[in-house]
Write a structure and sequence with these properties.
Blueprint (H helix, E strand, L loop, with lengths): L9 E4 L2 E2 L4 E14 L10 E15 L7 H6 L8 E6 L8 E15 L7 E24 L3 E2 L3 E2 L8 E11 L3 E9 L7 E4 L7 E7 L8 E9 L3 E10 L1
Antiparallel strand pairs: 1-2, 1-5, 3-4, 4-7, 5-6, 6-7, 7-15, 8-14, 9-14, 10-13, 10-15, 11-12, 11-14
Length: 238
Amino acid sequence: MAFVDSSASRVLINSRHLSGSISGWEFAASRSMSQVTSILDTGQRFIPGIAQGAIGCTGMFNSAAGDIDATISAAVGVDNGLLWTILPNGLTIGQPALLCRSELEDYKVTSAVGNAVAVGVQGMPDDGTDIGVLLHALTAETVDVNAASVDNTAATTNGGVATLHVTAYSGLTNVVFTVGHSSDNISFPTLATFSTVTAIGSERILVATGTTVNRYLRAQVDVTGAGSVTFAMAFARR
């Protein structure tokens, strides 16, 4: 049994690693249930409906450029303005990743004598929440890279969601990020391709329902020019 202390978790929102300003977070995944009970049944019966969820965090107000206040404030009134990747057990490839694209539902800044100014962020998930794995830790790359693969033990057949958070970028002409998948851990055709990157930013890609996702997944990086890019990538099967 391997329990995890809260201090191991990390939180990425849009193009920022905000763990240093966050004291807690919440994530929930659920589905609506439609009742299909007939008079012939001996108990209630249901079928699963649409995905739902909840996401949010608490922390300390920080007005520094690019920190939590600037990140959350920039999402006010922006459609799907917050892209979250939460890592309950840290930034190691293969560790669990909780993914969500959300509207900003509520942003509270509170103050009390004797305490640091606090913030509370509540997001309204758009297209539900997803549970997946980290494919690339939040580290810098300067050349083309194929990250270590993650083994799901079997293929799946219902598509998925990929997230990318680019937190630092310098010098390079551009970078192409892809998710590769494989049935044999040798050949990795492209499963998903993010928009070509020329600056910090974030993106979510939906891999269509009904798409086969092979047993193994990996992050793939194709850089043009000389420089450095720091990013994290995750994928959740559906």
